[in-house]
Specification:
heterodimer; A: alpha/beta; Rossmann fold; Dihydrodipicolinate Reductase, domain 2; 2 domains; six-stranded parallel β-sheet; six-stranded mixed β-sheet; 7 helices; 29% helix; 31% strand; B: mainly alpha; 2 helices; rod-shaped
Amino acid sequence: MLNWIVIGIGDITARRVIPAIQSESRSRLYGVVTRDLSKAAAYKVQAWPSLDRALNDPAIDAVYVATPVFLHAPQTIQSLLAGKHVLCEKPMAMNEPEAAIMLNAAQESGKTFGVAYYRRMYPKVQRAKQLLESGAIGKPVIAELTCHSWFDGEAERSWLIDPAKAGGGPLYDIASHRIDVLNFWFGQPLRVGAQLSNVVHHYAVEDNATVMIEYAGGVRGIVDVRWHSRVARDECRIRGTDGEIELTPLNGP
Amino acid sequence: MIENFVDAVLGKAPPLSNGASAYWTDWVTEQAQKNKPA
């Protein structure tokens, strides 16, 4: 049985992460780390106000880091060095140098380190990879992923518009998942071009980003994400020389 | 995601999203972020 602790009890943790741990047969929610201990009461497990204190407990096997992005690197590294396996929310870090340090810490610790880019685990995304590898659409040449929604920085998720806590806007929050799907399909990215701007919301982070990625063999991926569209879109398709794979909506059957 | 991670800890399957794969996702994000207007 794997004893988990979760750092941070926010919307996603409460709706997805903790129920997933509780329903996994080899896992047990052992405790939570939260500054507001009243948030832990509903789970009837141990609660600590700081990670330092929690990591003193040798019964803990795994840590789920579900805090704002600026805390991912320090909390992940601290947990790995304490001998715990770590599953970290996405994006992995505030920037590439932080991500590299996290990766080194994982390698030195010998512990399992995962990042919650879970869309690559969707059966339809896995099936698309099989089809690409089998040549079902000929040579893939372009993949287009679009995620548009309206986000006005409300309430509990307001930290997402603070660049010191989130790193960036929709580029970090929603494009990162789609970039990860492209990397899953096409491998290591070679070149990146992008445009970021603020068209409607004049936050300190961008309210839209368009990213173009080039992969080996010349296949391109385009990711367009927007927080200023009242028309929700979640489009995904791959076009090849002999056909195309339509996966719209990405978040759906 | 949790199930795959536990499989990886127990040595039954590789983690589908590990630090090495996520590093390249964050690398793309970092490159894109450089295009943010000052």
